[in-house]
């Protein structure tokens, strides 16, 4: 058996929408706090991702907290509303905070078990600033609610930008404020050339060849879960809607069914990779999710895992978290006697990300064509 696991953003899809939405979210928050200009550069975003802050929901919240912390040096009572619309603030001449320095300081504390916003909260509240009680609560609210569409300002702004006002309203039943078309449909585009896509589909026609997409993007699976259809929109943009998909929607449903926080089982969790392997091999999504959690969390060995003994697994990633997920899945399978040796293929042109991907065990290539050629898949 041969299985290819694809991340979506940065591998199959150029994620221009998420980066632009992050830039615009931080810019809008900065304007609401009276900063004359807050420009988040591509270099900033690459630094965020290289230190392990790969969710724009996290980066947006951390940036908002830093902007608010900065403004308190001159306006200690200024705050942010819990939801749009944003206020018109009195302008000032404070520079934007040193975002890269702060994110870089988080790197050694971010792990599979500790989320970036938890690390950021601890760092901010222990930085020597004499916070008032209301200021402490304001920072905690921004960071702790970063993934909550009904309780986070940055989340709501970001989601309306990426989805577009109409889809945002339909998805969350919340009032839209920005009157925008969705960045996901207007900015994202396929990384795969038409020729490479056809070669991939031809490869999948061969017996014993399987593939799936495993992404932390929100998704709307045929399960009892509410989430935005961002992963499905991504697959449509690359014209690979036929590929099995394991994304946030299904894993959030699984986590909720086990009494866990919604993002617990996403990459770098091994559950994400294990579920993707099963779904790629033809198992229904719900069964794949349950069997993956059964093996990783409950040490239940299901006979379905025997099919993967000696399987060739190729994982294409642009984040260290995804590579760690695959390595963790390999170790769990080894504990029950299933030996696999995944090939970890990292794709990036960023020198910052290259280092973190190499540390996570990836062989780094500048583009998908060279990556496919190097491992003999075309």
Mean pLDDT: 93
Helix/sheet category: alpha/beta
Radius of gyration: 21 Å
The number of distinct β-strands equals: 8
Summed up, the helix count is 17
Biggest sheet details: 6 strands, parallel
What is the gist of this entry?
The chain is an alpha/beta fold. 48% of the residues lie in helices and 8% in strands.
Please characterize this protein's 3D structure:
The protein is built from 17 helices and eight strands. It has helices spanning 16-32, 42-50, 56-71, 99-106, 116-125, 133-144, 153-163, 165-172, 183-186, 194-204, 230-237, 248-257, 270-280, 285-298, 320-335, 351-359, 368-374, and strands at 2-6, 13-14, 189-190, 209-214, 245-246, 312-317, 343-347, 363-365. The strands form two sheets. A six-stranded parallel β-sheet has the order 5-4-1-6-7-8. Strands 2-3 form a two-stranded antiparallel sheet. Helix 15 (320-335) links the parallel strand 6 (312-317) and strand 7. The radius of gyration is 21 Å and the shape is globular. The two termini are 17 Å apart.
List the main descriptive attributes of the protein structure presented here.
alpha/beta; two-stranded antiparallel ribbon; six-stranded parallel β-sheet; 17 helices; 378 residues; 48% helix
